[in-house]
Design brief:
By secondary structure, the chain is an alpha+beta fold. It has 3 domains: 1-111 and 190-264, Gyrase A, domain 2 (2-Layer Sandwich); 125-174 and 374-415; 271-367 and 417-494, Gyrase A, domain 2 (2-Layer Sandwich), CATH 3.30.1360. The chain has helices spanning 12-20, 31-38, 47-56, 58-71, 92-98, 124-128, 132-160, 162-165, 171-182, 200-211, 216-229, 244-261, 281-292, 298-307, 310-318, 347-353, 376-380, 384-404, 427-437, 444-460, 474-482, and strands spanning 82-91, 105-108, 191-199, 272-277, 338-346, 360-363, 418-426. The strands form 2 sheets. A 4-stranded antiparallel beta sheet has the order 4-5-7-6. Helix 2 crosses helix 4 (58-71), helix 7 runs antiparallel to helix 9 and helix 13 crosses helix 14 (298-307). The chain is globular, with a radius of gyration of 26 Å. The relative contact order is 0.11.
Length: 494
């Protein structure tokens, strides 16, 4: 066996320093790896030699990439080229658009841990419509209340958590709890920043999608992304133009939707509803486990699972859990059973929910008619009236902007405002969400949503959900199911 480290991400400043220190060369590009790996299927040479050949003939490597991607349709070769981007000064609304792309990695500036200043995006749509003053005045009022709430919430949180407050090392955590509730009043125009890691195939997809967006901020972000990569990797970022499919499909569907739904009365829906799920989920899970551990057809396994008694099914499914720790993923067979939730969540909650990109997430626009989420701590310190006054002012400005703009009125809405979300996941992903988001360290808003999702899932697939819950409760859940403690694994921490 031979294993070579073919490359790794390094800071671009280091690359530029290295290039300045040596003779000019054109092989400092991720296209080399794409071209070399693309040849593996047809060239008998060792892959390290293919990389050497690609480095020696960059022009030919680039032409090979274009041929393989454009003519042959093998876009996967572009996935070997990876880019890192620092994205600064974008709105919270634009961050949501970025994080719609699931096969990327993001680390975002947290409004829970960083004290917000007065940084916000002034959208071109607002400025061009002559609504700058009313927009800025409202943002300033929101931010003023944020600072006031933080000053009031900080002593409240410390008093409420006296045991933690005795330890100076916990003060940052307690301040974060105050910030996370104060931030509900700041707008979606608030500036943020993030680090993004993305391969070339998904970057091309992002650029193409963004080229068809209406918001000027997204178009500007798109131009910046494309300008940075087109010179570095011209052979693997090919399909970047706006197109009717991306630009018009949803618009046309929206027009038809209004016709179809004109006579339908709106249905008041709760914050978390289970609207669809796999029927006989526990039977299907049992069948999938039988299939993966036998040589029988799935149809045979399903029929056998249907004939098992409840006690037999439970005993069998428990075997899939018996060696688990809280950090283990449940088996892949859990992906064969699914759940679809309709959620009404705040922008604060959605900011965390959207990070679960293995789910299928479909959203509507933020809608003031859905109301707002007010943290209980705001009520406890007696600041509800001030909070609601700012929300009322924000709603008034939102409707004024909506009447004047074709796009962009959502920027003025706050982290407390809500949207409807259709959230489709398999049982395996639900376990991941439950472990992470039901833990006491998770933010309270998404913790409540996650707990309700788990409760609804337990009602329709109790065996699949035997060990579902936050990681902090894992030990007690395991003991309840197995009547004993899990065998703990030890790790070398040296």
């Amino acid at each position: 066996m031979k294993v070579f480290l073919a490359g790794y991400n390094v800071d671009s400043t280091v690359l530029e320093d290295l290039k300045r220190a040596c003779e000019p060369r054109d092989d400092v590009t991720p296209e080399i790896l794409s071209a070399a790996y693309a040849r593996i299927s047809r060239d008998p040479r060792p892959v390290n030699e293919l990389r050497e050949a690609a480095r020696a003939e960059v022009k030919r490597a680039r032409q090979s990439n274009k041929t393989i991607i454009f003519k042959m349709g093998h876009h996967s070769v572009a996935e070997h080229a990876v880019f890192n981007f620092d994205v600064l000064g974008v709105s919270r609304l634009a961050v949501e658009e970025l994080q719609r792309f699931r096969l990327c990695s993001f680390t975002e500036k947290s409004q829970r841990y960083i004290t917000l200043k007065d940084d916000f995006v002034l959208p071109k749509e607002i400025k061009n419509a002559g609504k700058e003053k009313i927009f800025v005045d409202t943002i300033r009022a929101q931010n003023d209340l944020y600072r006031k709430l933080f000053r009031q919430l900080k002593p409240y949180v410390f008093e409420k958590n006296k045991n933690l407050a005795e330890d100076p090392k916990k003060h940052t955590i307690l301040e974060g709890w105050a910030k996370e509730d104060a931030r509900y009043v700041v707008s979606l125009a608030t500036q943020g920043q993030l680090g993004m890691t993305i391969n070339a195939r998904n970057l091309e997809y992002m650029i193409r999608r963004f080229a068809s967006k209406d918001l000027e901020e997204i178009k500007e972000l798109n131009r910046n992304l494309y300008d940075l990569v087109k010179k570095v990797a011209p052979s693997i970022i090919l399909f970047t133009e706006s197109n009717d499919f991306d630009a018009r499909t949803y618009k046309d569907l929206k027009i038809s939707s209004k016709d179809f739904l004109r006579e339908e009365l709106p249905v008041d829906s709760g914050p978390v509803r289970l609207v669809d799920f796999s029927p006989d989920a526990d039977v299907k899970l049992t069948a999938a486990l039988l299939f993966s551990t036998s040589s029988r057809s799935y149809e045979t396994c399903l029929k056998r699972a249907q004939r098992l008694t409840p006690e037999q099914k439970k005993a069998y499914v428990k075997k899939a859990f018996q060696y688990m720790e809280f950090y283990d993923f449940v088996l892949r067979e859990f992906e064969y059973i699914n759940l679809t939730f309709e959620l009404v969540v705040s922008a604060t909650c959605f900011a965390q929910l959207k990070r679960h990109r293995m789910a299928t997430i479909t959203t509507q626009a933020y809608d003031p008619s859905l109301g707002v989420t007010i943290p209980s701590s705001i009520r406890d310190i007696g600041a509800v009236k001030e909070f609601e006054e700012i929300i009322s002012k924000t709603d008034d400005v939102y409707y004024q902007l909506k009447g004047s703009l074709e796009k962009g009125e959502e920027y003025i809405l706050t982290n407390a405002h809500c949207k409807r979300v259709l959230f489709h996941i398999n049982a395996r992903e639900l376990y991941h969400i439950s472990r992470l988001r039901e833990d006491p360290t998770a933010q309270w808003d998404i913790r409540e949503v996650s707990r309700r999702m788990s409760e609804l899932a337990e009602e329709v697939m109790p065996l699949a959900c035997l060990l579902i819950g936050g990681k902090n409760d894992y030990l007690s859940i395991y003991e309840r199911v197995f009547r004993k403690k899990p065998k703990r694994r030890r790790f070398d921490e040296s």
